[in-house]
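User: Structure please.
Assistant: Input sequence and predicted structure:
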Amino acid sequence: QFAKELAPARSAGMKPVVAACQDSRQQAAFVAQRVLELRDAGRSLNNMAVLYRSHFHALDLQLELTRRGIPFSITSGIRFFEQAHIKDVAAHLKFVVNPRDELSFKRIVQLLPGIGPKAAEKLWAQLNSTQPVREEDEGEPVRPAATGRSLLAAAVQGLEKGVPKRAKVAWAQFTATLAQLESAAPKSSAGALIRLVVEAGYEDYLKATYDNYRSRLEDLEQLGSFSEQFETMEEFLTQLALLTNIEAEDAGAAEKEDERLRLSTIHQAKGLEFDVVFVIMLCEGMFPSARTLDDADAIEEERRLMYVSVTRARDELYLSYPLLRPVAGGGMDTVQRPSRFLNEIPDEAREEWDLVSGARDGWDAAGENEGDPDW
């Protein structure tokens, strides 16, 4: 072969930034703040992207961007909250909080064998006739009193005569799960209730229905962890509805905004380039994925994905990771280790920003920038 000497056609720019954050919320605040600063400096949102390994990595970021009024589009394949397993589990929680939620009831019962849309419609009509709406409750979510036997579960159990024979056993399990959820709802977190739904039979449903059930279980685990930041289940469901609406609006209205920040999984970003790229959640178990840690070939595939992510950036590259991560079920947060891929970047080829200690131009531990807008 002829010897070749490669030379850059552009002058050197800023080094890639590795940013350590307190948690995913501070990471989201960092990305949102930096995006606003870059836009104020003349960068178009259309030329900026946030990349991540899996759908759920961007949940806190979507909330933060919404709070700050930063328009964005999501190009992550099937949208996180539009996935069937997310909707299924959320429907259980919605129905317990609001027994008049017709869509949630019908979605849940159609998971049972032998119950289709027509049977679900009949069961809903029967349930509605046994629970007349009081004038003072119209339009208001109502949680039945959890005294003695669960009133909601008892009402649902009363529908058993109209249930197809194939669904009798599953219906009994369904009503038992409702009783547990209703009893636990006033004092348990949304994460605890999500785990209860999964353990009470939904995991078996996933195994019987989907080849990738392990991935779907991981999504539900992450949904539970995400829910821990909210004080009440009602607050969590409100934010869930907000994020779901964001995804639905984004699917049909992407062209209405002059410019939008791009949020995407790395897989969906192959072949694309942006002036500015943020790669988030770069910690062990997230990127690389926990499912790949014991498989050398899988780790190599993750490393190739890392290469794809960092080479999407033309001018500026920000690599961030949270030090703490909430665990579903409450309690103390778990400490995260930075991704092994960060250690593979030479020290002289990167710049470290410690956002936890607020060492970078006034960025405090709460995630608010108080200092120089140019960093």
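The two ends are 46 Å apart (CA to CA).
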